[in-house]
Structure formats: structure tokens, C-alpha cells
Amino acid sequence: MAFVLALFLSFLIGFSQGKLKLGFYSETCPAAESIIRSTVRNAVFADPNMAAVLLRLHFHDCFVEGCDGSILINNVPDPERQAFGHQGVRGFDVIDKAKTQLETACPGVVSCADIVALAARDAIVMTNGPDYPVPTGRRDGRVSNKSLASEMPDVSDSIEKLKAKFFDKGLTEKDLVLLSAAHTIGTTACFFMTHRLFNFIPGGGSDPDINPSFLPELQQKCPQTGDPNVRLPMDEGSEQTFDKHILQNIKDGFAVLESDARLNEDLVTKSVIDSYFGVLNPLFGPSFEADFVQSVIKMGQIGVKTDLLGEIRKKCSSFN
Ligand code: HEM
Question: How far apart, in whole angstroms, are the C-alpha atoms of residue 216 and residue 202?
Fold first, then answer.
């Protein structure tokens, strides 16, 4: 099934996407993708939540300065990764591990930005999501500063603001829904959602979008004066499997993140969600998995550098 999907997608997106190419390393570093996949497999076996961590890392990399590994840099004053909008982003050690092996196998060839994109794909596969070919050939950026990450989408953004931030990156409302559905795996800290539970509306009260049968559970897990670092799944009941269950949860008022809940309020984004639950779906309706793949490939093209604006870093956490 995964193989058929991969073939179909190669056909659909052609053999090159923008300036990137499928199989970019097939001659210069044929083992590149298998080295990355086995590093991700080991990391996810050791810590199942690492799959979600790596997928999130790809999003945060792409949304600031394009998908160029700018978030990985750690050896300059005020690096991007310290930005408020990147709070909780992890997975750097897994990328570093893959890079160390790649530098032994084929020094100076595989960019850190490509490692992040390929690791995100492998993470999706590890959680039973779709396998898909990732166009590669990104080069690593030479800029990383936390001031550049001030426009990251935020959980409390209005739906209009979320849409605008995605449009700015060349992504549509449909992409916003599908990419937010990445919250099908992983967890959030109470820090990002307690405000929905107690003082959401002036005068107190909770976000009216929360299903009344879900509210007590959330309030119990994230009490008003509790530990903000306690974590809870974002796709209640299915947080380790990559599937469209999160969209059903959003429809039913079981969204954990406020930004996910907002997707069910807007006519356009709601109709995208509903399209995956038509009476004829999955036989005739759109495929969530295939559509997600198109959106994540599109996200992976944001601001890519394929020329001398970029470099191939020797170490992912430092510029050359
Ligand atoms: C629409 C705007 C988005 C907002 C406001 C948002 C916000 C968040 C927040 C607050 C968390 C919890 C972070 C933590 O506690 O460590 C989170 C987790 C996550 N996000 Fe998003 N996100 C958005 C879009 C995306 C996109 C586009 C992707 C990937 C395609 C993504 C993938 C993930 C994943 C996989 C996690 C779980 C991480 C973990 O378990 O450590 N998110 N997101």
C-alpha cells in the first residue's frame, strides 16, 4: 500500500519539485536516506514520542527562513532556536547523530535541512503514516537569529491570523488543516492549553468549543495552578498513530490545542475537515493520507536554498 502511494505520488509531483529533486543523493551519497531512516528508527524505538518531535522540528525549521536548518544552529548569539515561538522544540540530537554518520559515509554532501525533512518523513512512517518520496537538494542557511521567529503561528492566533501566516508561506487553508492534523501524534504541555480551561472568556469560564464531556478531563489533567510542564496527548485516544482521528476529534470538540479547535469554526477550513468524513469516504472521497503528503511536501519547499546562498554544514549546530 505504502509502495503504491509512493509510486502514485512520484507520478503526481513529477520527478522534480521546484528546485528540489527526488533522489538528489542517489549518486553522491546512495546510503543517505537509509542512514537517516535507521537513525530515526533507533531514536523512536528508544523514545516513541521522538516521532512527533521530529515532525514538529521540520515545521519549525521551514516556517522561519525556509527549510534550511536555521533552527539547528547553536553557536551564535541569540540563535533562532531560543525564540519564544519555538518553545519545546527538540530532536536536535537525532539530527546530529544522523549527520555524524553521514559525514563518515560521504563527507560534505548531505545538508542538515534535508536530514530534517527526511527524518520527518521517516517519523511519520514509524507511526503508521504514509511513506512518500521527499524531494531533496536543500542547502543549509547561513542566518539564525531568534528575532526572525517572531511570526511563528501561535496557539492563540485567530483563524484569520493562522490562515494569513500560512498564506505568507504559500500555503492554503487546505494545507493549514492538513498540516495541523500532524497533531495526530505527540503531546502538548499544559502550558499551551490551560488558558482554555479557566479564564478563556472575560469573567472566567472555558473555551465554549470544548465538548462538555471532555472539559472535566482536561481540567483534571491541567489544573489551574498545576505544573505547566505536564504533558497530554493532542489526539485523545490515538496519539501514537498517524491517522485522521485528530480531525474527527476536532469536529467533536475534542481538540486539545486552541488553534486546532479554531479550524472547525471557519467555513472553509471546516469544509476541508468534513471532506474526509463524507458518507462515501474512504471509498470515493479524498484521501487524508495522500492530501497530507502533498501538503507536507509543499511545506518542505518553503524558502529552500539550492544555490550559493546556502552551504552544506559539516556540523548541523554550527555554520561552516
Ligand atoms: C497551525 C499552527 C500550529 C500551532 C499553533 C502549533 C502549536 C503546537 C504546540 C503549542 C505544540 C505543543 C508543544 C509542546 O508542548 O512541546 C505542538 C506540538 C506539535 N506540533 Fe504543532 N502547531 C502548529 C502546526 C504544526 C504543523 C504544521 C506541524 C507539522 C507539520 C506540527 C507538528 C506538531 C507535532 C508533531 C507536535 C507534537 C510534538 C511533541 O510531541 O513533542 N504542528 N504544536
Answer: 20
